[in-house]
Amino acid sequence: MSTPFATIPDDGTPLRVVVVGAGGMGRAWLRTVEDSPLVELAGIVDLDLDAARAAAAAAGRPDLPIGTGTAALASDVGARAVINVTVPAAHHPVTTEALAAGLPVLGEKPVASTVVQGLSLAAAAELSGQLFMVSQSRRYNRHLFEAKRLSSSLGSVGIVSAEFFKAPHFGGFRDAMDHPLLLDMAIHQFDMARFLLDADPVSVFCEEYNPAWSWYRGDAGASAIFEMTGGERFVFTGSWCSPGQETSWNASWRISGGNGTVLWDGDNEPTIESTGAAAGSPAGSPDPGQEIAGSLRDFVAALRTGSTPMGQVHRNIMSLAMVEAAVHSASTGTRVAVDALLEESYREAILAERDPGVLEVLKSWPSVRAALSAP
Ligand SMILES: NC(=O)c1ccc[n+]([C@@H]2O[C@H](COP(=O)([O-])OP(=O)(O)OC[C@H]3O[C@@H](n4cnc5c(N)ncnc54)[C@H](O)[C@@H]3O)[C@@H](O)[C@H]2O)c1
Q1: Which of 66, 86, 316 is the best mutation target for the ligand 1 pocket, counting ligand atoms within 8 Å of the beta carbon and taking the most?
Q2: Minimal CA–CA distance to 113: which of 284, 327, 298, 305?
Q3: Is the entire prediction scored with pTM above 0.85?
Q4: What is the CATH number of domain 15-138+293-313?
């Protein structure tokens, strides 16, 4: 069950943080941290010290302390929180180390490589009494918030669809991985659908395929139909090898209800045709901030006030569960129940857990679904 986390009352000074992971996304985080008055960059951690040094120089802070160990550097520089921007395989060890050292963590998506590891991290957060929040950055978008507000006028919403068609030539690991679209990209749209509907996944049927002209080794196309907890259907269809008339990186959305429809192209203001009235202020939604700057603001506000941020680990695991369930459905040709996937992952998490304290927390959960949906 999720428990309250330790807060760090605002004493008028910015929160000192270390950034772990000095790769492409790590550099984006370094710029965002440097630009924010809420936080102060205290050091950079990377297994590759040359990468850490180069990132410090690129951030205009060549003298910034660097190191290879998260807890050690954080202690040396007096940091109060960690931003984990390592590769997914390192999310579990780095976040576990930071939480055990009494440091709250803001981590890049996905929560971990697997739901099994995500459950371990949720239990580790409970054990430490520290906040672990996953930065699911595409939620922090003013237009997405406005699309959600407008959809409150649609009556009962039954269908949400997202189309994602892009043609990036990344080179590197994405070109060689097994499920490039589902594993590396679709988690954003799956998470956005949960946000728009205030609902969690029940089951999914998914097909993956690789168009004849694809430059990816793994399947670059996928179509998935999710049943959500309110009975709604969320339909995702996308491709990473579709040049021409490309959609937004946010995807192109249709939200359909009994009274009308909201459309959002992912880049501009959403539009609506409805016979109902939208909830909230007619002036529109509050600004959630933009992408990682928005999630950083949410993280610091949670630490300062005890508010629950959008990516709190227990809730966020359900977005990775959607990805794993879709991959499983595509590989077996069957509809996959998310509860079955969660139960199996929970059994595996208990078998795999090496930390006795974390194991005890895992075993104390009344059920995995109840633990993840607790406030
Ligand atoms: N939100 C988004 O839109 C978005 C976009 C790109 C990447 N990401 C996420 O950001 C994360 C990083 O992606 P990237 O593209 O920067 O990867 P990258 O490979 O460019 O960089 C990762 C860095 O982590 C370091 N590292 C690996 N294991 C480590 C460990 N145990 N301790 C310390 N450092 C370690 C590596 O040496 C490397 O410098 C991933 O989780 C990815 O999914 C998110």
Answers
A1: 86
A2: 327
A3: yes
A4: 3.40.50.720
